[in-house]
Amino acid sequence: MKTGKVTLIASAALGLTLSLGLGGCAPHPPADPDGLGQITPTEDPYADFTLPVPANLYTAWTAPDRSTFSVIDVDLPGYAAPPAGSGYGRYFDQEVTWIQCGGYECANVLAPLDWNDPDAQAITLSMKRRPSTQTPALGTLFINPGGPGGSAKDYVSDYSSTGLEQYDIVGLDPRGSGDSTAVVCGTTAQTDAYFDLDYSPDTDAEKTLLIAGAREFAAQCRAGSGRLLDHISTIEAIYDFDMVRRLLGDEKFNFHGVSYGTYIGSVYAELFPENTGRMILDAAVNITDKEGVSQSDGFELALHKWAQWCAAQNAPATGATPSPSPSPAPEPTGKCSLGATEAEVIAALTAFVADLDANPIPVGQRALTQSYAITGLALYFYFGADYYEDMTQVIEYTIATRDGANLLYAADLLNSRDTNSWEPMAFAFPAISCLDGSDEGLDASFAGWKEDAQRAPFFAGFMGPNVTCVVWGTRPAPQIKFSGAGAAPLLVIGGTGDNATPYQYAEWMAEALESAVLVTRDGVGHGSYDAGSSCIDKIVRGYLTDGTVPQDGTVCQMD
What is the pTM of this model? Predict the structure, then answer.
């Protein structure tokens, strides 16, 4: 996420009053005026409770071209009556019941749809836990893989807990995503039509179709989700996180977030600095109003690093096969047929992708379009250098055979499309992104696209402008000027060759957050923990387990 301007990662005018903080104070005990252990009941021990709101905001972005749709009540999966009781106490006094789920423990709790109205509609929050196996116990470590909309519950299964066995590892799917009450949009066919659009229009007619298609998608999400679309900002999700922290009995909020997860952590530190525990912000996003570096710059850098590697290949092949790869793959040659130099490799790939604009490759009832090809390539760059050979073989095979199945499959994985349906992240991703971020309208978006394409001609040029959020059907959330004043040390980690969150974002985050310590991984790929640098892994585990804060500016190499 980027505050102020919308940046999409694949890593809210709430009107609330400034307050004591949701997690900063324990439940108010009933009065005992005589001191005799006789409790005098009160009507509502939370009657004076108020919610924290961002104190400093950016106001420059007007979002002038957002769509306006009528809002109807929709009965969504996970909607429920609020818990017994009244006011905030009905949520803060919930019991958490864990049940076995595939070798882990799972639980659901309720939260207000609108934190301003705790006695109205409730939504469901779903989480999964890997219980601690060593003592002394360190409490809960919340984790989030990014997105926005990535399943934190699924991440529990993949997260490397080696050295962190004293923690209960908990993945809580944020509101609007995963197994929590999730955003609902159109049918599979309608969503296919949206993703089939040409996202880098070359003519006025294509531009008109793109804008119309984005507005139609926004209308489908509003019709399918109703009022939920207005209440899935990260600010409101943070109220959920702190409520769950309280319910689990943790004094502090310990957290490891990747990509968009670093935005979750930053917002938490801004709203609940006194409750912030040990926090890792890995693959930092842009939380400032600084410009001049876009996500496409990160992908362009990754493209050039791969092209350098590709042109230098002369050694025998390792025998690796493409992954993902639903179609038969060619035998590896150990060489790159795309060119003898970096420039030649990029030129060959550019020519192939450019041709797809007029000549998409049929794949069953679908087609590998230019936009899908860019998305498929982007997936491989998330994985870093370990997948260079796989990606090269897929590109060579696709060009040689005009079989687009492998690259389309990779695009579907990144877009969250299953074989015949769309997964929740396909809808949560734009819905949360567009509510969290603001913009300056369509003209500014197209102008920004042209500027980005001058720096990143391949990825910015083919990815196109951000039209989806510019015409989205909600008003933006408050745009926070971050400082995190009063928070515990925040470990901000950036990779010098991160494709999705350029390294400058980590530098900017570390500058903005007063207690931040910057750690750098010198390498490619998205995210640094458990990504081939034992130096990074040692720092992360050391801080989470015993509070060891590394020196600011520490640089780690890949193993």
Answer: 0.89
